[in-house]
Amino acid sequence: MCLLQVHQILNTLESSDGLEYDFQELKGNRIIDIQTLLGVFSILSRPKCFATGLKLTENSKEGLCSNFAIVCKCGFMAGFTSTPKENKKCSLNTLLVFGLRLMGRGFSAGMKLLCTLNLPYVCKKTFRIHELKLLEAVKYSCEENMKAASKEVQNLKKTTTCGVSVDGTWQRRGHMSLNGCVSVISIDTGKILDLEVMTQYCKMCEMNIKCDHECSNYKGSSGNMESVGAFRIFERSVMKRELQYTEYYGDGDSKAFLKVKDIYGEDTVTKLECIGHVQKRVGSRLRKLKKKNQRTLWKR
Predict the structure, then answer these.
(1) How confident is the model at residue 13 (pLDDT cuts 50, 70, 90)?
(2) Taking 80 as the threshold, does the pLDDT of residue 170 lie above it?
(3) CATH says 149-286 is which class?
(4) Which of 32, 34, 84, 93 is the right S-S partner for 63, CB 3.0 to 4.6 Å?
(5) What is the C-alpha radius of gyration for the chain, rounded to an integer number of angstroms?
(6) Which pLDDT tens digit goes with each residue over 281-299?
(7) Which of 202, 205, 199 lies closest to 170, judged by CA?
(8) DSSP track, 117-135
């Protein structure tokens, strides 16, 4: 609350001494920090104010963060926010957006949640601003963690060659997904060394929004995303991670391996089978064989 607002409220109180105050009644729910609440309790330890009457006003709100003021007829006034601010910004709104994105939900889901709880909501433009800031923070944190993981492998093996598990995943099951992701995980540490996110759909282009933005980075079938993603990761491994992924642990699909087997030179990458995938395939075939034989014996 600025100094001008404080003087305006105090002048109003002085000019209307002995009259009833027309404060707007506050409704709905608010989220409040416990330490802030304890501070407010200490403010309310003035016996004189209890006698003359106290009023709580909400001067402004920024999404889930509200700016309150306790005002008394005696001229006393104290302002406070429902949650602490960092660099003059409420972190609670950022945490709301972050939590929704972790669950795979967006603005509409957030609106439904806040309206159901009778809480103030964040406008769509502000929600998007928080999304973009979180995206940059997550990208930076992700890159730093993967760099640290690659350094750990180098220190552990005392060499720049290592084995990695390569696998892809898609937003939707089947081969119709517009978005996919490929990651490589160190066999020695179990930590992610690199990943490649691919999409063949751009909402901003679909809506004909003419502005600079990060567009789709893949064209082709969804099933081929794993091969392309693996090639991109292996291609930049020396430059970005100072490592050569010379042992390729896959899931039995040889398409991605064929893309990278000569990437550091002829036959420099060796394909090794992941025991988990071998176990899965053998188990599936044994169960199928058992089921087939049971039917044959039943007929006899």
Answers:
(1) very low
(2) yes
(3) alpha beta
(4) 93
(5) 30
(6) 888 888 888 888 876 655 5
(7) 199
(8) TT-----HHHHHHHHHHHH
Query: Do residues 12 and 77 make contact, with C-beta atoms less than 8 angstroms apart?
Result: no
* Distances 161 to 31, 37, 183, 240, 241 between C-alpha atoms, Å: 52, 56, 17, 14, 11
Q: For 222, which DSSP code?
A: G
| Alpha helices, DSSP H, located in the chain | 3-15, 34-43, 47-52, 91-102, 107-116, 124-157, 203-206, 225-235, 255-260, 275-299
pTM value is: 0.70
Structure tokens at 18: 């002995």
Dist. CA 207–CA 99, nearest whole Å: 27
Q: How is residue 35 written in tokens?
A: 């330490």
3-state secondary structure of 81: strand
Over residues 218-270, the pLDDT tens digits come to 888 888 898 999 999 999 999 999 999 999 998 766 788 999 999 998 878 99
Q: How far is CA 296 from the centre of its chain?
A: 53
Burial of 187 (0-12, 13-18, 19+ CB in 10 A): middle
Domain with CATH 3.30.420 in the chain: 149-286
Longest dimension (CA), the chain: 104
Strand 179-186 and strand 85-86: pairing? unpaired
Q: Please tell me whether residue 136 adopts helix, strand or coil conformation.
A: helix
Nearest to 131 by CA among 112, 106, 110, 103: 106
Residue 19's pLDDT is 42
Distance, in Å, from the CA atom of 53 to the CA atom of 16, rounded to the nearest integer, reads: 14
